[in-house]
Amino acid sequence: METLEPARIAFLAATEGTEQAELIEPWQAVFAMGWQPVLVSPAQHKIQMCQHLDRDGTMDVDIPLNALTNNNFTGLVLPGGVANPDQLRTDRAAVAFARTFFTAGKPVAAICHAPWTLIEADVVYGRTLTSWPSLRTDLTNAGATWVDEEVVQCEYGPNVLVTSRRPDDLPIFCKTITGVFSNYV
User: Fold this and answer.
1) Residue 144, Cβ neighbours under 10 Å: how many?
2) Is 112 labeled as catalytic in the residue annotation?
3) Is residue 88 part of a domain?
4) Does any domain span residue 103?
């Protein structure tokens, strides 16, 4: 009898500045489903997380971005934090990696400031998203419709895109992403 490998969910995070709760809580939700969360980063060994603007814990990188050889992931989670997506959107490999999930029709989840990376990947046009309120103008200028809701599941486009505003929205964000990812496992 063939043993099935667990679904692999990529978490893309910059070397520093990832909002710790926005990485850890979805990570735990994915793990609780029996899936394999995988930290992908431009960092080679560890990322430095934060709690708001203060340094917090670190986390080991599973696959450095420059060592990726394929995209055999079921879905992608983009945690927020102000610095994290700001760094990722200037990293061509990170932006290209995020874009591959859209071109492959795979689900993507982004919270807080994370849609900045998606704006840079040019994948938000015509989509409905939510985010940290300060991204409203950026998203609108990129052709998205911005709404102020706890979670938005947009199915318009090549894939399902789930977005949320802030750490307070993590319970509904985690429930929604595990529901969406379960359709692709």
Assistant:
1) 26
2) yes
3) yes
4) yes
